[in-house]
Amino acid sequence: MDLEACVDSIAEREWQTETSGTVRLAVIGLGWWTVEEAIPAVENVEACRVTVAVSGSQEKATAVVEDHHQLERGLTYDEFHDGAASQLYDAVYICSPNALHLPYAETAASLGKAVLCEKPLEASVERASRLVDACANIPLMVGYRMQTAPVVRHAREMIRAGAIGDPVHVLGNNSQSLLELIDDPDQWRLDPSLVGEGASVTDIGIYPLNTARFLLDSDPVRAQATMSSTSDAFAAVPDERAGFLLTFDDETIVVCTASQNAHASTSLRVIGTEGELHIEPAFHMETKLRVTRGGTESHYTFPETNQMEELFAYFANRVLTSDPIGPNGEHGLHDMRTIEAIYEAAADSAAVPIDTPSVDQAN
Amino acid sequence: MDLEACVDSIAEREWQTETSGTVRLAVIGLGWWTVEEAIPAVENVEACRVTVAVSGSQEKATAVVEDHHQLERGLTYDEFHDGAASQLYDAVYICSPNALHLPYAETAASLGKAVLCEKPLEASVERASRLVDACANIPLMVGYRMQTAPVVRHAREMIRAGAIGDPVHVLGNNSQSLLELIDDPDQWRLDPSLVGEGASVTDIGIYPLNTARFLLDSDPVRAQATMSSTSDAFAAVPDERAGFLLTFDDETIVVCTASQNAHASTSLRVIGTEGELHIEPAFHMETKLRVTRGGTESHYTFPETNQMEELFAYFANRVLTSDPIGPNGEHGLHDMRTIEAIYEAAADSAAVPIDTPSVDQAN
Q1: Tell me, what's the pLDDT at B9?
Q2: What would the mean pLDDT of B316-327 be, rounded to a whole number?
Q3: Which residue has the higher pLDDT, B324 or B361?
């Protein structure tokens, strides 16, 4: 196996096909991620443009429109649901609290708009399934931006090419201090009616979970987990800290930790029968890959791309070409099933099987 | 917190007390570890000497005696149990298959000899308990050599001093290709009647488990696990590959992987509320420690000591001074309880509580 050939084997934006035109976007939910990451990213993508901002607050929507030259119109949630200004956008980017994804997706679908929905897909499997069903006739993509990172895509190619033999174990960790990032204990990520069953697994445990699925081309079939919350701010959610143990359908054993109240740390390690891949940091600014095979350790630094720009560029490309899009709703739904199984496993102190549908993702 | 002060805070061999005299050792079990690692290590330790070699095979015992100038006598197992040449040694080092530790320890104790027993203590909790009981009146130490490594001891001091805040998560992995190391599918590590319940958790999963206990000054109270075997050579044991999830009594969540049939890889990561410690490689030749706190990453390289020399030097020191010795039998017994809980948890697909006795170790 020639690792270097593998490194050269995939081109930059290998998914890109010839297109013309522009996808006009309505962004829904104007939290810091949308304003500081998503809108600036779209401004750098040729094939799309943000034209509409949707928020619970008319003032916020208006302020965001005034601050960004591409934007034409600010809408309240009610106005959006009424179909206001729908001639101004072709697709929506949903970045609201998890438990509000469904109504926005339903409205977007009823208006015939394509949907790029942030992960996790919704707050429960039941609601996520309804979201997928609602979007049956429009393009639906889930915003797993880490799947766009060149280091992650090359790592997957290396695994597919046999660089580490058969995968045996994955170790992943993702932690941050949520209250240092957003200094407010009343935020939606700590409110089960908006976030779903918990704060850490849903919001950041999903990164090692989903990246492992992407790297292995394999899906979890069984979950075990433990979690606890002791701080006051985390009293409403069970997982201030969590650990979970997944068995994948290729027999790989995946262990992960996630916490919204710990030192910021991210890494992903895939150990196979013949070698190992290690990505650190992971899940956001990842560029560095260490590959160990036999006695040889190789270090690669891949380009640091803006993952949100990659996400929007790919989404726009697929909407314009009508080519299959992914990670699709079914892919996102399997993370939801896994996350629900993780919470159930922790509550019941028992392993929980996960139904496997596994329609292949397009991406 | 001043990390540098912490680095300087413990002296080399901080456990060492003034002694005179020599501890003469009988080594029991003449596999590659005893012959290639243990005996050469003892030869470099001033306070002890190997005088007797005990083996199932008279020829092997004789050959080892002939090859090593310190050795005076080779014994068969039967001769050892009969008390032959007991005037030639003061203590025994037991490095036989796990399920044979008990009878050698019983004989040694009945002869009034101190015991340094390899880990795991025995093949089951029941047998390990009998071993501890049998050694009630003699010094008993368990051979957790990784606890002697300067990098590990300094990491523990840093955690104790608050360098990473409160520990939240530990991730540990240990894997190797057993059949590349010992090219024989009929070896004792793959035979449940000699190794215990499995091959990977007992033999190498015990390293991240025990090092986590040492670093955290805390013990597991609950285990969850998954494991599988698919290769013919591993048909008799359940854990060609294993993952386990432990809850410690300080609420730290510890996730580990272990495999005797994977690429050789070792690491240990401790994530706290304020920072992170990372040791890689771990459990054998470890010297490098990365400490991350706030935005600062510090790298330390500690001396590479021969862990077996450290182990024997400490053991001899404690035998000569009659000071408390550790890791003691109770410490080793808690690993046995944890390991048994891991296998039970994997078999039952349910969390298994672990009794906590936790008599403090002396070390």
Answers
A1: 74
A2: 96
A3: B324
Q: Whole-angstrom Cα distance, residue B96 to residue B100?
A: 6
Contact B312, B45 (CB under 8 A): yes
Q: Can you give the pLDDT at residue A2? A: 72
DSSP single-letter state for residue B122 = S
Q: Is residue A285 less than 8 Å (CB to CB) from chain B? A: no
Q: Which residues of chain B have a CB within 8 Å of the CB of A222? A: 226, 349
- Of B263, B270, B277, B279, which to mutate for an interface test with A (greatest number of A Cβ within 10 Å)? B263
Q: Is B208 on the interface with A (CB under 8 A)?
A: no
Is B162 touching A (CB cutoff 8 A)?
no
pLDDT in tens, B110-168: 999 999 999 999 999 999 999 999 999 999 999 999 999 999 999 999 999 999 999 99
Burial label for B191, CB within 10 Å (0-12, 13-18, 19+), is middle
**What average pLDDT does range B346-363 have in this prediction?**
79
pLDDT at A11: 72
Pairing of strands A261-272, A275-279: antiparallel
Flag whether pLDDT at B361 surpasses 60.
no
Q: Is A20 on the interface with B (CB under 8 A)?
A: no
Residues lower than pLDDT 50 in chain A = 363
pTM of the model: 0.96
**Measured distance CA(A202)–CA(A123) in Å, rounded:** 8
Q: Determine contact: A274 vs chain B, CB below 8 A.
A: yes
**What are B196-218's pLDDT values in tens digits?**
999 999 999 999 999 999 999 99
Containing B109, the helix (H) or strand (E) segment is helix B101-110
Q: How many CA atoms lie within 13 A of B329 on its CB side?
A: 21
Question: What's the maximum distance between 2 C-alpha atoms anywhere in chain B?
Answer: 63
* Minimal-distance CA residue of chain A relative to B228: A251
Provide the pLDDT for residue A231. Answer: 97
Do the chains contact at B265 and A273, CB–CB below 8 Å?
no
User: Cα–Cα distance between B236 and A259 in angstroms, integer?
Assistant: 38
Q: Are B353 and B341 in contact (CB under 8 A)?
A: yes
Residue B244 φ then ψ, to 5°? -140, 155
CA distance A140 to A138: 6
CA-based nearest distance B58→chain A, Å = 38
- The answer to whether B151 and B302 have CB atoms below 8 angstroms apart is yes
| ipTM for the complex shown | 0.95
Q: Is residue A298 classed exposed, middle or buried when 0-12, 13-18 and 19+ CB atoms within 10 A define those classes?
A: middle
How far is the C-alpha of A139 from the C-alpha of A326, rounded, in Å? 9
Backbone angles phi, psi at B158, to 5 degrees: -65, -45
Cβ–Cβ below 8 Å for A263 and B243 = no
Per-residue exposure over A59-93, b if at least 16 CB sit within 10 Å of its own CB, e if not? ebbbbbbeebeebbbbbbbebbbeeebbeebbbbb
Whether residue B196 contacts residue B132, with contact meaning beta carbons closer than 8 Å, is answered with no
Instruction: Give the pLDDT confidence of B247-290 residue by residue, as tens digits.
Output: 999 999 999 999 999 999 999 999 999 999 999 999 988 999 99
Alpha helices in chain A (DSSP H): 3-9, 32, 39-43, 58-67, 77-81, 101-110, 125-134, 150-160, 178-181, 192-195, 200, 206-216, 307-321, 329-348
Which residues in chain A have Cβ-Cβ distances shorter than 8 Å to B255?
171, 243, 245, 255-257
Residues 6+ apart with CB under 8 A from B181: none
Q: Name the residue of chain B whose CA is nearest to A353's CA.
A: B349
Q: If you average pLDDT over residues B6-28, what whole number do you get?
A: 87
Q: Where are the beta strands (DSSP E) in chain B?
A: 23-28, 48-55, 73-76, 91-94, 114-117, 140-142, 167-177, 220-228, 241-248, 253-259, 261-272, 275-279, 288-293, 296-301, 352-353
pLDDT score at B359: 56
Question: Rg for chain B (alpha carbons), in Å?
Answer: 20
Nearest to A102 by CA among A128, A120, A77, A79: A128
